[in-house]
Amino acid sequence: MTRTVTSFCPGHISGYFRPVFGPDARSTGSMGAGIVIDEGVRVTAGLADLTRVTVDRVDLNDWVIERSGGSLPVEDLLTRMGAEAEIRTACRLPIGAGFGLSAAALSATAVAVNRLYDLGFSLEECIEHAHESEIRHHTGLGDVAASQGGGRDCRKGAGIDAEIERCFDLSDRIFAVTFSSLPSPSILSSKTAMDQIVRAFPGRCPETPEEFFRFSRDFSEKSGLITPEVRIGLGECDREGVLASMTMLGNGVFAYGEGAREILGQLGETFEVHVASSGVRILEVS
Questions:
Q1: Gap between the Cα atoms of 213 and 254, Å rounded
Q2: Less Cβ crowding at N or C end of the chain, within 10 Å?
Q3: Separation of first and last alpha carbons in the chain
């Protein structure tokens, strides 16, 4: 008898996006471009008669450095899937910092619980449930769709059924620094903020990594989301000719290639990530 299932979903750094609001959650989401990263969220789902959610941030040795209890989006997800479970989510990156961890937690939870109880949902249906919870709780728009696969992604439409172009042309390391969290729910529910974001959207997919960073950087300026701390970090990268932009939606900077670690390391705790090769998946069944 299966007692626990462990799954993993990669995170996602969004460079730029355009919100799209359809008649239902399936057609609501965002167009835009980003990078699926190999750091994300590991979920262990266990049999239980009552849903309990533990959210852990762990270090490189998996020691817990920060723990909280409860997650309304995850609890809502399980309710709609018709299941109760003991859920432990674990991640190394900071939460609420623009790494798509809410989407990763939801996607990983959905596939783990589906396998734990043999609920019979397809992978697409699990992803649809995760996406709907993300939309309902205003924790993101396009990260669930992006994290179905790896690479540098460009989402050409909204929702989980839209065409996604994926390129695997970022061979060097990516570094990120975060200064604090940005309140995604308040931004995503603000008409004023959304209108400015729509006007800033470049309107097409980038053809190269350089173009991706240029489009992302222009978007961060024109969207009005850029913060003073981020502006300082981007200025330092500009002076050294390092490709960089703002993590969306997070008060931080991500940069690529030679010199990025040294520059961002002077600004705060710096995280090294790589482009993910694949999306959400089951790791272990016991």
A1: 10
A2: N
A3: 8
